[in-house]
Fold this protein.
Amino acid sequence: MNPLDLKLLVKEKYSEIARQRKLQNQSSCCGSSGCCSDPSYTVFSHDYSHLEGYNPDADLGLGCGIPTESAGIKSGDTVIDLGSGAGNDCFVARAITGESGKVIGIDMTEAMIEKAQSNAARLGFTNVEFRLGDIENIPVENNTADVVVSNCVLNLVPDKEKAFREIFRIMKPGGHLSVSDVVLRGELHANLKQAAEMYAGCVSGAVQIERYLQIMRDAGLNKIEVQKEKTIKVPDEILLNYLQPDQLMDFKESGAGIFSITVYAEKKDSNPN
């Protein structure tokens, strides 16, 4: 699939997700019906319920980490959430940055923006804003963000190099990011790479962890640190939707793996004094 088709696929799937209940999203590997065969299985979802600012209506169960926990957000910060969905990470970030700060959510799916704006209005938040936009061309001015967060979204972006250059551009000098995402160690079988459902489910769009970190370095980010890493165990019954039994055995014996990571990085301040 070409990049435009991939983006259209993601918009279609996440428009569907925006209209579903959290339980439906948690019970499939991509949040869309028909993707996974075991309705009791949750591939990525993390529990936010213990966090200040958590709002159940904004939690669609789609994250592969909790980047706000590791982001070092301070009172008064301007925080930008890339792929903000229904606003879950934005509302948690707002609880930390407070009334004196600002939170901007960016999402390319109209249905998600509408849902997030509705949630913010219902909660009475005046310093949380949601903008329709593409992470490869972020609708934010240069040097805006003290902190950038993103949760299981950048793996869906076809041009990750451009996305991280855009992230660097919108960060203030001395600003930093905390990104939760899906990466690989070893090669995925070609059938998995080509599976549209698995792309929308944040798996076949993932790249090797070494490549991911190099893209960040090439964009100009420094002090890069993998804060958390967790193996994602996709059940056999899901993988068998895309692989023959012998192919599944080969995949398991190859040592290849799928991981969720949370990564920290900084934009160097050229005038530290």
